Amino acid sequence: MTAKPNILVIGTGGTIAGRGKAAVNTSAYLCSVLGIDEVLDTIPQALALANLRSEQLLQTGSENFNNEHLLAIGKRVANVLARQDVDGVVITHGTDTIEETAYFLHLTLKSVKPVVVVGSMRPPSAMSSDAALNLYDAIAVAAHPSSRGIGTLVVANSEIHTARDVVKSNSFKLEAFRSPYGALGYVIEGVPRYYRRPSRAHTLDTPWSLDGLAGLPKVDIAYGYGALESDALASIAANARGLIFVGTGNGNVASHLLSTLREAARRGVHVVRASRTGNGIVLRNGTQPDDEYGWLTVDDQVPQKARLLLALALTQGCDTNTLQAAFERY
Ligand code: GLU
């Protein structure tokens, strides 16, 4: 019999660590109140999959996570992955921003060992909670050799998603996580089954590592609509090094906002056109002359992940062509 893998489960809070007053409270409950060991105690079956150790790194809703939280999680995970006695890591996390933490790890960790970020839409106390099975599945995925070398994963509702693509796309249903090109695979009865691999570069194939990284450049997001006033947009752009402008449709910019964004770019703010549709490609030099204005486009990335990609890219330089290439490669 081969030895069981050693998996470290890191708790950070969220609904998976939540508790409601009654079983009918599927949406109204307290988040981030159960310790990681209390959550793990609900799935003794996971001990058949792996040797488990746990630690409580944070205990807060993921809506609170800022750049410092991401760096703290990333540095801790990078540190434990370097250890010989750790074969994989599971991070329990609130679902609100699970895709951001997962993508940040996907772009910065330098290891082939599986890292799985997992949450739940209902707390363990609720009727038909997804907490126990999601965590069990996440441990199964992290423990399995077929999960090595494919970057950071998000496991939910029996699906395995790549961190690059997954987004939370529903506020309360169990079927909340969506990848525009589909999941990488399923988990069934404690065994992952993969059908595709991520095609964009990640982990060992990125130039970014968390070693010595003390902070991230300030990149902000502005949500576009026709009634957005130019002074409100200008104030968001005022102190940013980068600005993700979430335009309508194919990254469209209302005519009365063009001069504000062009002025920001002239001041050295890296303006990136994204789309508020949540799907599809924002084509460079399509609806706007991006070359002429010195603007960038996100390719197909959603604004919240484009923010992280641009912030990491800016840690290595600010040449427009190099920054645009990052959106096409990762
Ligand atoms: N406050 C929660 C969070 O940490 C709510 C969502 C959840 O975990 O499902 O994101």
From TrEMBL:
GO molecular function: asparaginase activity
Statement: the UniProt record of this protein carries the keyword Secreted: no
SUPFAM superfamilies membership: Glutaminase/Asparaginase
Domain L-asparaginase N-terminal: 6-198
Domain Asparaginase/glutaminase C-terminal: start-end pairs: 218-327
Keyword set, alphabetical order: Hydrolase, Plasmid
Family: Belongs to the asparaginase 1 family.
Name of the protein in question: Asparaginase
